[in-house]
Fold:
Amino acid sequence: MRLDGKVAMVTGSAGQLGRRFCHALAAEGAMVWVTDLNKEACQAVVADLPGAHHPLALDVADPDSVQVGMQEIDRVSGHLDILINNAGIAVFEPFEERRFEDFMRVLQVNTGGTFLCIQQASRLMRQRATQGSIINVGSIYGVVSSDPRIYTDCNRMNSECYSASKAGVIMLTRYFAVHLAPYGIRVNCISPGGVFNQQGADFVNNYSRGVPLARMGSEQDLSGAMLFLAGAESSYMTGQNLIIDGGRLAW
Structure:
């Protein structure tokens, strides 16, 4: 097991990507703290994982919740080796209809939550002299704009605040990679392209036509990169944004 004996924390564990990340980490021998807003949902994920793991209710946008969660990890596990900042939200109305409080809420959860978890996790890693790996989940829409022409049968259009929040996550990755390097803590980012999640047939076809590999991604396409960044194989890699998009941004 490449991650045998490692302690990992995944935020947004009850979601599509988070659940897969938890399974991948557990399969490689890590002990996983499965965190999300709802503890029952976390317990359901833990029940499906091989080995002994811990569910934890945690709100990444609440400083007190993040601090208490890290204290619980420290109390029970004694250290933290891997943090996966996966939790995130989105809104889908046209930007002309956007309420400012919704705009700010997306930034608070996606960018602010990433900051709070890095702040508290890096404190624990430094305290325990852990050679930690922090992996943020960005998006290609933190690098380029979404294309409104592909959303013909889909009323879940990508939003300006989601893109801004993910651009912020990518920049936080670079900032903390520099400032945490003296402590042996690496910080990298995974930016997925479109991941299939029951979107309409027109959207899937429109999106796939813009991808050299001619399909949408899956959560399995991302977990291998996550494991690479979590383990010793990437020990000389920090501050990077791995774009996993089937080649969409290559043309």
Residues 7-250 form a domain with the Rossmann fold fold (CATH 3.40.50.720). The mean pLDDT is 95.
